[in-house]
Amino acid sequence: MTMERRAPSLPRESTTLADLLDRVLDKGLVVAGDVSISLANVELLTIRIRLLVCSIDKAEQIGLNWWRYERDLIHRDGEDKTAIGRLESRIAELERELERSRNRGR
C-alpha cells in the first residue's frame, strides 16, 4: 500500500511582471549599502550606495525633484534649437566626408 503526500491545495495568486513593477513604482523601493575598505583598523575607502526606484509622481511626493533644476536637463528653447542646428550641420558634414571617401575608393 502506497500513500501519496500532497500539499494542501491553496489557491495560487499569480502576479505578472507588470503588476510587480507597477507596485514597486507606486510604493518605491530603496536599496542601501556601504562598502568600507580598511587596513590595520585605518579606514582607507568608504563607498556609500543609495538607490531609490519609484515613479516620478512618488519622487515628487517625497520631495525628490532634482531633474527640474539640473542644468543639463532643463529645456531651454533658444539653446536647444542652436544645439540641434549644430548637430544637424555636423551630421551633414560627416555624411559629405563619408561620400567623398567612398568616391575616392572607387
Which features would summarize this protein structure in a list?
106 residues, two-stranded antiparallel sheet, 42% helix, extended
- Uncertain residue ranges: none
Output the structural class. Answer: alpha+beta
Number of helices: 3
**Main pleated-sheet profile:** 2 strands, antiparallel
What distance lies between the first and last C-alpha atoms, to the nearest angstrom? 86 Å
List the helices and strands in order: HEEHH
How many strands in all?
A: 2
What is the arithmetic mean of pLDDT? 82
What's the structural domain tally?
Answer: 1
**Main sheet strand line-up:** 1-2
Mind telling me the C-alpha Rg? 28 Å
Helix content bin = 40-55%
As a percent range, the share of strand residues is 15-25%
Note the overall shape: extended
Oligomer: single chain
